[in-house]
Amino acid sequence: MFTRRFTFPALLVILNLSAATIAVDDDIKCLQGIKGSLADPFGKLAAWTFSTNTSAAFFCQLAGVTCWNDNSTRVLSLELSNTSLAGRIPESLKYCNSLQSLYLASNDLVGPIPPDICTWLPYMVTLRLSGNQLSGSIPQGMANCTFLNVLDLSDNKLSGTIPDELARLQRLQRLSVANNDLSGMIPSDLSTYDAESFSGNKGLCGYQLNKLCKKSTNTRIIIIAGVLGAVGSLFLSFTLYWWFSRRSHQK
């Protein structure tokens, strides 16, 4: 009876091949999901076919897809701007977990920015989603894209406030949330970005826009209540002092 033995180098080769196969399958699943979930009125993704291709990195030759190098099977960048793609940002992007650049600008994307997008794409360096119809708030989880250099969310319909957490993106060099429906005070920690980064949001205020922030109704109520409380305390103190003084004189 023979016992089959694998040497350590052979085992490493097997494990590497297995990991590479899983990576290829994930990237294919990612690209298939993008094509299947987005409307493509002008057939920009028509050449994205998967059933007849047998080479490991065939998808690196697809339009808009860039891989790490000619011999790599991992998707590095997706350039799908100005393609009239319509729909929500595909959840299948989570399978392109080596992606560093995602360009989806000037399309017809709708709905919110997925709150887990930075969990899906932890190595993302460039994210351009400008010129769509995206709505909802800017996810606080965007701060988890710790390698992010460029974040362009301009010309959408985003609302709410700018998360303070964006200030944690220490590598961020370019930020634009211009021309949305954002409101509230611009976080003071985002002081390195100029007015152009925030312009076109009527509800935004802060020194970056040279626009003072009005105190909220709640703040005004608190201030008024504090003033009235102070006046009431003084009046009560004066009344008690007068009463005790009068009693002392009567005695």
Automatic annotation (TrEMBL):
<dbReference type="Pfam" id="PF08263">
    <property type="entry name" value="LRRNT_2"/>
</dbReference>
<keyword id="KW-0472">Membrane</keyword>
<keyword id="KW-0325">Glycoprotein</keyword>
<dbReference type="Pfam" id="PF00560">
    <property type="entry name" value="LRR_1"/>
</dbReference>
<dbReference type="GO" id="GO:0016020">
    <property type="term" value="C:membrane"/>
</dbReference>
<feature type="transmembrane region" description="Helical">
    <location>
        <begin position="221"/>
        <end position="244"/>
    </location>
</feature>
<keyword id="KW-1133">Transmembrane helix</keyword>
<dbReference type="Pfam" id="PF13855">
    <property type="entry name" value="LRR_8"/>
</dbReference>
<feature type="signal peptide">
    <location>
        <begin position="1"/>
        <end position="23"/>
    </location>
</feature>
<dbReference type="InterPro" id="IPR032675">
    <property type="entry name" value="LRR_dom_sf"/>
</dbReference>
<dbReference type="InterPro" id="IPR001611">
    <property type="entry name" value="Leu-rich_rpt"/>
</dbReference>
<keyword id="KW-0812">Transmembrane</keyword>
<dbReference type="InterPro" id="IPR013210">
    <property type="entry name" value="LRR_N_plant-typ"/>
</dbReference>
<protein>
    <recommendedName>
        <fullName>Leucine-rich repeat-containing N-terminal plant-type domain-containing protein</fullName>
    </recommendedName>
</protein>
<keyword id="KW-0732">Signal</keyword>
<keyword id="KW-0433">Leucine-rich repeat</keyword>
<dbReference type="InterPro" id="IPR052592">
    <property type="entry name" value="LRR-RLK"/>
</dbReference>
<comment type="similarity">
    <text>Belongs to the RLP family.</text>
</comment>
<feature type="domain" description="Leucine-rich repeat-containing N-terminal plant-type">
    <location>
        <begin position="25"/>
        <end position="68"/>
    </location>
</feature>
<keyword id="KW-0677">Repeat</keyword>
